[in-house]
Amino acid sequence: MSTLPNCPKCNSEYTYEDGSLLICPECAHEWTAAGAAAEAEALLIKDANGNVLNDGDTVTVIRDLKVKGSSSVIKIGTKVKGIRLIHEATDGHDIDCKIDGFGAMKLKSEVVKKI
């Protein structure tokens, strides 16, 4: 018996085939087997060098960043520990973190590199 992949949207294990589509009965998400790999790739968040980022990683800022609403700047080389990834970011800021001296902030993955 072949095993079907879990739903990429809700991770349900109760998926079934209907012709060329895979369907999740819990969230009603439909996808193709070829599209499942593309969707999984789209969910990955990568740093400026193309390394895959995960929750809890430590990253370094690769350029000076102006802090909106302040005259201070986050300097190049600043270490950010314990990042959290935001997969449904609408404004491009897909990393939620806390930076010493600045507090909670969101960053774009293209301005950091994984250590």
TrEMBL record:
One Pfam family, please name it: YjdM
Domain Protein YjdM C-terminal residues, every copy: 45-114
Which segments constitute the Protein YjdM N-terminal domain? 3-32
SUPFAM superfamilies the record matches: Prokaryotic SH3-related domain, Zinc beta-ribbon
Superkingdom: Bacteria
Q: Which Gene3D superfamilies match?
A: 2.20.25.10, SH3 Domains
Which family does this protein fall into?
Belongs to the YjdM family.
Protein name according to UniProt: Zinc ribbon domain-containing protein YjdM
The organism of origin for this protein: Holtiella tumoricola
